[in-house]
Amino acid sequence: MANKIKVQVFTDFDGTLSLDDTGLLLIDDHRSLGPKRRRELEEAVMENRIKYKDALQEMWENVHISWEEAWNEYLDDCKIDPGFPSFNDYCQQNQFPVTILSSGLYPLLEEIMFNFLGEKAKKIKIVANHAEIKNRTWKIIWRDDSIYGNDKSKTIIEAREKEKEDTIFIFCGDGISDISAARHADILFARKGRDLETYCKRENIPFISFDTFAEIEQVVRDLVCGKYKIDKSNNIY
């Protein structure tokens, strides 16, 4: 089909693709920063009192769990959104690239995704920060010098420059690390009840709230088959 709609999917990982926020599991641990200070930092970012990168730096500098403890106590039990495997299969079948954009740490995401999807995970590109992990010290290595450390909008903009104008760019997120990408998607999915949804309502950014990737898959299927269209304001009708 020559006129088939082209789609590119970008998704946050922690709290969006993964039901658990893998970073916060380690940051909130009693040996690490803890939830009280972590939430204070998140609120400061939402209120533009500090940069997201500075907040995340403090969080990871105060993680004091070994790599082995992280996996044995938390990460091996992480779960993904139950609708994602089906959605990913649909995207792969239709040659719609899926990219994970994360403020998390690449070594964690790579292993977790393989646990989730096995060999299928190799077809999903991961754009994240890197890290040096020694004993109980975690050092985040930023992907770029932006205020986010990994500005997710840059990856979307770069991909858009290489694609035809009619390609539909989708972004799925849940939190404050997704704010930079919010204005650069043709369709923005924000997980219900999370910070990204709050931000979009406050800033009048069009979005679709979701509980599971099964809902996202249905919207994409409807777009591809022509049931829905997108206008110049990125509204679906």
Automatic annotation (TrEMBL):
Alphabetized UniProt keyword annotations: Hydrolase
Keyword Hydrolase: yes
GO MF term set: ribitol-5-phosphatase activity; sn-glycerol 1-phosphatase activity; sn-glycerol 3-phosphatase activity; sorbitol-6-phosphatase activity
UniProt entry tagged with the keyword Glycoprotein: no
GO biological process: alditol phosphate metabolic process
Pfam annotation, one family: HAD
NCBIfam families per the UniProt record, alphabetical: DKMTPPase-SF, HAD-SF-IB
UniProt xrefs under PANTHER family: PHOSPHORIC MONOESTER HYDROLASE (PTHR28181:SF2), UPF0655 PROTEIN YCR015C (PTHR28181)
Protein name per its UniProtKB record: 2,3-diketo-5-methylthio-1-phosphopentane phosphatase
